[in-house]
Each structure stands twice: as structure tokens, then as C-alpha cells.
Design goal:
By secondary structure, the chain is of the alpha+beta class. The chain is 40% helix and 25% strand. The strands form 5 sheets. Strands 1, 2, 3, 4, 5 and 6 form a 6-stranded antiparallel beta sheet that branches. It has a 5-stranded antiparallel beta sheet with strand order 8-7-11-10-9. It has a 5-stranded mixed beta sheet with strand order 14-16-17-19-18. Its EC number is 2.7.13.3.
Length: 501
């Protein structure tokens, strides 16, 4: 190809340039292309000269480019190519990438028109712009859909942005408050103090709200004041200091806290009344009951010869019911104290404790009572755990229906990872599954009270104590197949001095 003299004289300059550059003639033929351009487009350095400029363009834009080139040659001047349009170029392998092109007209000594084109690959910039757009879209979605109110202000306290949640919370539209002082959203005396606080922070950097959350009050458009949680962050945008406030309406939480305080006060008062009631029951009821019991025993003993069989049976029932009433009062007192009185936990050796419980119960000679060895040491209040085992074993003894020599009761334990499981199993009459929930309720018994001496408090007390220790109680039984009462206790760390309430 015959290369114009002007183009040849610029060849050294193009080859020295790091930017991709080429010179083409008025017909759109490439006269010179430097190594940077050949590398960018994936062509051999000497393979481009003489080719139509459109070889560097995607096929879909080649025809339009030829028309634009002719228009440019009619009025050549230095300018960017495309007039703000998105331009793309095509590599030798067919891949397309975004570019920016600068055009400069040239003429050779013979007056022939030439064009110098400088080409920049802007792929990285486009990717960065796309990532920024995606990030802005995500932030916009967060801003628009956030449950909490978001408000941005400048360093003079003037509001710039309110998200939809802020508009709903305060009753103002963003357009209505833009440029107004954020103290508009504050009740007195906070409104009057706000500008002074902001000015103090800008002068000294001393923080009161910025960078940390606090509870304050907000003012709605209708004049109503509400409690809110406010966190303020500081940022710099384009050299300007901005503040972003994140606001949460905590009216519901405050109402719940007030209700909780009210219920706690009522519970405290109820506990105090229960304590007083327990004192009355213990002293004012048991004293006359003891008198009735003593009198009944005296009549039954000293005047036994004056009663017929029916009279003696009536006296027996009277005495038993007096004793049951005393036991019921004791059971109610025990039940009322569980969870109400602060108790100190201690390491309890269950082998020793069960030996004491069995010795106290003194099972009849015909009852076989087996206790598994190697019982663990648990962290508990000793009296409470003694009550649990005492009530379960006593319950099995009271309801046993097998003759001497056939009655069997077993106390076992198992390690179940995070907790211990204990069980008391008997071969007594068993329980219908439909009564499983009922038997753990206060004052509930299945057998007639005059046949089996029971207050109906024992299993309810067991359940309350075990659940106080965050354990569970269950029963497995069927009529005629005996029963197994089991309960769990967490493996608490053996730290003396701990308390449970």
C-alpha cells in the first residue's frame, strides 16, 4: 500500500505511544496502526495496513459507521467519536468490548485528508460502573424497604432524604421536609437543644449520640410524641459531612415493658400474700386441727366400749381424715414454697440420699425395693431432691396391690448426655394412659381417698420441683402392668453457692 508521507513521518510517534492509535484515509482504509492497537485487537502488527477500518467494528455497526465517517470527513475537527453513544470494537477472535475513541484530522503535504484515531479499552471502567450501579440498586432497595426509619441530614442539620418507613413513622413526605431542620421531628426540650448539640460536636468532636445508640423521643406531624431508639452514623460524601439517623419506634416494646413491670408488681404482691397465707395455714389452721385430732383419739380410746361397729368405723374415718387434712396442709405449704424461696444449690450424693429416704419410708418386709448403685452426684437443693424421690417411692408403696413377696420396686438411673434420667418402677396396678396428665395436677388421685391415704399433692410437687430445675417428668404404664415414673435433671456444673429460684 502506498503510505502517505505525513503518515510515514508519524509512524515512529505512533509506535512509541502506549495508547492504541491508527491513521486512516478518507476512504476508511487503515494507513498505519501501532503495536499497542495490534495487541489490543489481537492482530499481527503488519496485518492491518490497507484493511478497511470496519474490520475493527462489530458487524452490526459497520454500515452505520461508514456513513458517519463520511459525515466526519465533510467537517473534520478534533472531537470524541460517537457524540455520547456507547461504542464497541471487535477483536480478531470475534469478541466485542467497549471503547472510547478520540479523532483528530490530519493532511499530508499533498493535501490528502487523514484521520488519527486514539482508542481506549474501557472494559474495566464499565465493569466498575456496572458494579457501582448494582451496589446503588441494592442500597436503594434497602433504603426503600427497611423497616426502620432512615433519615440523612447535612452538617447544618437540614434533612435531605427520608425513606418510606420514616415518612410513615413521622407523617411527613420527603419533599415536604427536604431542606428543613431535623429538629422538626423532635419534641421540646430536645428541639431547642439540637442545633447547639450539633454545633458543639462539629467544634469539639464530643459525641453524645453519634456512633452510639440511645433512647430518645420523636414528634409526629400530628403532634403525638413517641419513644424511639436512635443511632447516628457520620460519613463524608464529596468532601461534605453527612449524618445518617437510624430510627426505630419502640412504643410497643415500652408498652410491653410497662406491662411486665405491672405484672411483676402484681406477682410480688401475690407472693407476699401467699407467704402470709402460708403463715396463717401453718399456725392458725393446724393448731385447731391438732386439737380435733387429739380429741378424736381420746374419744376413740377412752370410750371405745360405748361404740358399736358402725360408730368405731366412723371414728376411724374421722381420725384418718384429720390426719389427711394435716398432711394436705403440709403438702400445700411445700408446694407453695417451690420456686418462691431462693434456694442454694449443693452437690447431693444420691446414693446416700436414697438410703436415707428408704430408711424413713421403712417398706414392709414383703416388698423388694432395689436401688441401682453408683448414683451420680447432682447439683440441687437437698431437701427438694429428697422430696422428689420420697414422693415417687411412697406413691409406689401406697398403691402396691401385690401380696407380700411379690411386690417389687426399682430405682434406676441413666446418663443421657446433657442430663441424668432417673426412674422409679413398680409392678403395681398400673395406670390407664388417659389419666397420665391428670395425675400430675394438684389434689388429683385415682383411688378413693378412704381406701388409699393420699392428698393428691405428691406428684404435683414432683413435677413442680423437677421443672424448676429445667427437667421433665413422664410416666409409662398400662392397667395391670405396673408403672414407671421417670424424670430428668440437667448436669449442672458443681459450683457451690449457686442459687435457684
Amino acid at each position: 500500500m502506498n503510505i502517505p508521507v505525513a503518515a510515514r513521518s508519524l509512524g515512529w510517534l505512533l509506535d512509541a505511544a502506549s495508547d492504541a492509535m491508527l491513521i486512516c484515509d478518507a476512504g476508511g482504509r487503515i494507513v498505519l496502526a501501532n503495536q499497542a492497537l495490534a495487541t489490543l485487537f489481537g492482530h499481527a502488527h503488519d496485518a492491518l495496513a490497507g484493511q478497511a477500518l470496519e474490520v475493527l467494528l462489530p458487524e452490526g455497526t459497520r454500515a452505520a459507521h461508514a456513513r458517519l465517517r463520511d459525515a466526519y470527513m465533510g467537517r473534520p475537527r478534533p472531537r470524541p467519536m460517537g457524540g455520547g453513544l456507547a461504542l464497541e470494537a471487535r477483536r480478531a477472535d470475534g469478541s466485542v468490548f467497549p471503547v472510547e475513541v478520540s479523532l483528530s484530522p490530519l493532511r499530508d503535504p499533498d493535501g490528502a485528508a487523514l484521520v488519527l484515531a486514539t482508542i481506549h479499552d474501557i472494559s474495566e471502567r464499565k465493569r466498575a460502573e456496572h458494579a457501582l450501579q448494582e451496589s446503588e440498586a441494592r442500597m436503594r432497595a434497602i433504603f426503600d424497604t427497611a423497616v426502620d426509619a432512615i433519615i440523612t441530614i447535612d452538617q447544618r442539620g437540614r434533612m435531605e432524604r427520608l425513606n418510606p418507613a420514616a415518612e410513615r413513622m413521622f407523617g411527613w413526605r420527603e419533599a415536604e421536609v427536604a431542606g428543613r431542620n431535623v429538629s422538626l421531628l423532635m419534641p421540646e426540650p430536645h428541639r431547642a437543644r439540637h442545633d447547639g448539640y450539633l454545633d458543639h460536636y462539629l467544634r469539639t468532636g464530643e459525641q453524645r449520640v453519634i456512633g452510639q445508640g440511645r433512647e430518645v423521643q420523636g414528634l409526629r406531624r400530628d403532634g403525638s410524641v413517641f419513644p424511639m431508639e436512635l443511632a447516628v452514623g457520620e460519613m463524608w460524601i464529596g468532601g461534605a459531612r453527612m449524618f445518617t439517623g437510624l430510627v426505630r419506634d419502640i412504643s410497643a416494646r415500652k408498652a410491653a415493658e410497662d406491662e411486665a413491670r405491672r405484672l411483676l408488681q402484681e406477682l410480688t404482691a401475690a407472693n407476699e400474700e401467699l407467704t402470709s397465707f402460708a403463715y396463717v395455714v401453718s399456725h392458725d389452721l393446724k393448731a385447731p386441727l391438732r386439737g380435733i385430732g387429739s380429741l378424736a383419739d381420746w374419744i376413740a380410746t377412752d370410750h371405745a366400749d360405748k361404740f358399736d361397729d358402725e360408730g368405731r368405723e366412723h371414728m376411724r374415718l374421722l381420725i384418718n381424715r384429720v390426719h389427711r387434712m394435716g398432711a394436705l396442709i403440709d403438702g400445700i405449704l411445700q408446694y407453695s414454697r417451690v420456686g418462691r424461696v431462693r434456694e442454694t444449690l449443693a452437690a447431693v450424693d444420691l446414693d446416700r440420699l436414697l438410703a436415707e429416704v428408704i430408711d424413713l419410708l421403712a417398706p414392709a418386709p414383703g416388698v423388694t425395693l432395689h436401688v441401682a448403685t453408683g448414683m451420680p452426684v447432682v447439683m440441687a437443693e437437698p431437701t427438694r431432691i429428697r422430696q422428689v424421690f420420697h414422693n415417687l417411692i411412697s406413691n409406689a408403696l401406697k398403691h402396691m396391690d401385690k401380696p407380700a413377696g411379690e411386690a417389687r420396686i426399682r430405682v434406676t438411673w441413666a446418663d443421657e448426655g446433657e442430663h441424668w434420667r432417673f426412674a422409679v418402677t413398680d409392678n403395681g396396678p398400673g395406670i390407664d394412659p388417659r389419666h397420665f396428665e391428670r395425675i400430675f395436677q394438684l389434689f388429683q388421685t385415682l383411688a378413693p381417698r378412704d381406701r388409699v391415704e393420699s392428698t393428691g399433692v405428691g406428684l404435683a410437687l414432683v413435677k413442680k420441683i423437677v421443672e424448676m430445675y429445667h427437667g421433665t417428668v413422664s410416666v409409662a404404664s398400662a392397667p395391670g402392668a405396673g408403672a414407671t415414673f421417670s424424670f430428668t435433671l440437667p448436669k449442672l456444673a458443681p459450683t457451690h453457692g449457686a442459687t435457684l429460684r
